[in-house]
Amino acid sequence: MAYGFAIGPGGEFGIDAYRWTPLHADVDGWVEALALADHAAHWARTRTRITGEAVGALDLTGYERVPEVRGLTDTWWRGKDTLVAVYDGEAVGLAAPQCRVAHVYGGLDDWGLRGG
Fold first, then answer.
1. What is the pTM of this model?
2. Region 47-68: what's the mean pLDDT?
């Protein structure tokens, strides 16, 4: 891998690559993000992967941030029937904007959006 995972001086979880890049405010946020990704992938009717410059064109108007993931450069957003994961950490840490990735999980009901 081009980087390693690390815990920052303030407890942030991130990657140590070309430069230190915090992904989540803490390890708990990273674990929440992993759990949410697994949950969304299981319950979504559709899943779309977007890369590079196209990630910047995502319109997240009307979406709310998912606070449980404590995202810094990697963030999650909740819409009416959609969850969106935006992964900018590698792009920032490696100074490589082409590494931006977003996953759009669509067709979710309330259980799919929020769990139990």
1. 0.94
2. 97
